[in-house]
Amino acid sequence: MRAPSMRALGVTLASGVLLTSMLTGCAQSQPTQAAQQPGVAMVAKNRLTVDISNMRFNPSVLRVRLGDTVTWEFNDQGTEHTVTSNADAQEAFASDVQGSGTFSHTFIRQGTSRYFCEIHSNMGGTVIVR
């Protein structure tokens, strides 16, 4: 039986080094949230919806994660509303006056943001960002 040539040995070795560096590079190039914080699984950011109907925000209290987007859907049979953060809210946001369609806001700060409808003062809600 013939011993492998130096060239064949070199190609085999180079291939192994290349494969190892590719695998190692991929594993280290994009650390997951779980790797950064033990016991926490990486979860995609959520898109959450608040229904505006029957003169209410439903749900009226919403708990979200940092980076989540909340979308308010105007479904109150054409009745116009706004989604407007209170002056003391953690984040400021405000929709136009709308009778249909949607308004979205992505929350980038932890804390509590209360909001209301500028037209109907009895309508209010809260977004808690953790």
UniProtKB/TrEMBL annotation:
Keywords: Copper, Metal-binding, Signal. Residues 47-129 form the Blue (type 1) copper domain. It comes from the Bacteria. It holds the Pfam family Copper-bind. Coiled coil: none annotated. Residues 1-29 form the signal peptide. This is Plastocyanin/azurin family copper-binding protein. The lineage of its organism: Bacteria, Bacillati, Actinomycetota, Actinomycetes, Mycobacteriales.
